[in-house]
Structures are given as C-alpha cells and as structure tokens.
Automatic annotation (TrEMBL):
<feature type="binding site">
    <location>
        <position position="56"/>
    </location>
    <ligand>
        <name>substrate</name>
    </ligand>
</feature>
<protein>
    <recommendedName>
        <fullName>5-formyltetrahydrofolate cyclo-ligase</fullName>
        <ecNumber>6.3.3.2</ecNumber>
    </recommendedName>
</protein>
<dbReference type="GO" id="GO:0009396">
    <property type="term" value="P:folic acid-containing compound biosynthetic process"/>
</dbReference>
<keyword id="KW-0067">ATP-binding</keyword>
<dbReference type="GO" id="GO:0046872">
    <property type="term" value="F:metal ion binding"/>
</dbReference>
<dbReference type="GO" id="GO:0030272">
    <property type="term" value="F:5-formyltetrahydrofolate cyclo-ligase activity"/>
</dbReference>
<comment type="similarity">
    <text>Belongs to the 5-formyltetrahydrofolate cyclo-ligase family.</text>
</comment>
<dbReference type="InterPro" id="IPR002698">
    <property type="entry name" value="FTHF_cligase"/>
</dbReference>
<dbReference type="GO" id="GO:0005524">
    <property type="term" value="F:ATP binding"/>
</dbReference>
<keyword id="KW-0479">Metal-binding</keyword>
<feature type="binding site">
    <location>
        <begin position="4"/>
        <end position="8"/>
    </location>
    <ligand>
        <name>ATP</name>
    </ligand>
</feature>
<keyword id="KW-0436">Ligase</keyword>
<feature type="binding site">
    <location>
        <position position="51"/>
    </location>
    <ligand>
        <name>substrate</name>
    </ligand>
</feature>
<feature type="binding site">
    <location>
        <begin position="133"/>
        <end position="141"/>
    </location>
    <ligand>
        <name>ATP</name>
    </ligand>
</feature>
<dbReference type="GO" id="GO:0035999">
    <property type="term" value="P:tetrahydrofolate interconversion"/>
</dbReference>
<keyword id="KW-0547">Nucleotide-binding</keyword>
<keyword id="KW-0460">Magnesium</keyword>
Length: 189
C-alpha cells in the first residue's frame, strides 16, 4: 500500500517529464473521454482551473464542452489562511487573476454553495483502483467535497493509470470516476 508522501514525489516527477505538447494532446483526449460519462443531464459543474506550472490536466477542453452544452460552470478561490475554498459562477464578465500560488482564480462574483454542485471535476496527483486520491496535501478538496450533496458526482482527471491501493484516511472523499486519456474508471460499483 503506497503512502501519500511517496506518491506525491513520484507523480510530480512523472508530470515534470511531460512535454507541453503531450499535456495538450492528453488533456484533449481526457475531454473527449468525458463525453462518454453519464453526467451531462446536470446543471451545475465545478471545474478546477489548471496550474500550468504544475503541469496539471488542461481543463480548458472540458470547459469548452460545458460551455457548448450551456452548463453553469463554477470555479473556486482558495483561502490559504482558513484552508477553505469559495465557489463562484463563471460568467463572461468574471475576472480571473493568478494567485501567488500560481492558481487562476475569480476575483469576485456570484457565490455558489457546494450543496448546489452536481458534478465536480477533481484535480489529483495520484489515485487508486478504489477511487481514493492524493492531492497536494493541503486538504482543500477533501474539506470542499465533504460539503457537497450526497448525490454530487466526483470526477478525477489524470494523465496516469491508478495505483493498486493508497493509504486513505477517514476524511478522504473517494471519486466516483477518473478519466485518463485512454480510459474511464468507474468506482461506484
């Protein structure tokens, strides 16, 4: 069973070795895979805005799908003092600014409660065959996902295949799905 600290180091290295070209290509493949999910009859979709310096999945492609389907898109702003995130409806006039941590965030806007969110696209470094994920270790997403409705669908996005098993803690919220460039993993079984 892999521990989170080791996995963070391993997957940060994996990402470092990805070219910009392969990140874009795999991000587009992930967006195309997302179209196969049974999630498109919802209204409120939360998506993370990619931190390009950390070579995250580029979520612009998924965002284009959401916009094309006229969905309500919600993005977050992290408060590193409280460890909480505020969630805002993304509109045409929403101003995005990159935080000192390199995270693109809305400056202000219409705040949306986590309980209203029906689908959340979740960033991760690694995940396992049961849907447990490893993030950057600050716990922002675990605290956020706990506040969502029991029916909210959590979808991880990853360039990589799952680990067999990750040590998980009681407050870890598992994913329902994870999308890779080649597969969709369904953890709801």
């Amino acid at each position: 069973m892999a521990d989170k600290k080791t996995l963070r180091i391993k997957y940060k290295k994996f990402r470092e070795n990805l070219s910009e070209e392969s990140i874009e290509e795999m991000s587009l493949q992930i967006a195309n895979q997302a179209l196969k999910l049974p999630i498109w009859n919802q209204t409120y979709y939360h998506i993370f805005l990619s931190i390009s310096s950390k070579k995250e999945v580029n979520t612009e492609y998924v965002m284009h799908i959401l916009q094309g389907k006229d969905k309500s898109i919600v993005v977050s702003k992290a408060d590193f003092n409280s460890g909480e995130m505020m969630h805002y409806l993304l509109q045409e006039n929403t101003v995005l600014k990159t935080s000192k941590y390199g995270i693109p965030e809305p400056v202000a806007g219409i705040e949306i409660s986590p309980k209203m969110l029906e689908v959340v696209f979740v960033p991760l470094l690694a995940y396992d065959q049961k849907g447990h994920r490893v993030g950057y270790g600050k716990g922002f997403y675990d605290r956020f996902l706990e506040k969502c409705s029991a029916n909210t669908i959590f979808v991880g996005l990853s360039f990589f295949d799952p680990e067999t098993e990750i040590f998980s803690e009681a407050n870890d919220v598992p994913l329902d799905f994870c999308i890779t460039p080649k597969n969709i993993l369904d953890f709801r079984k």
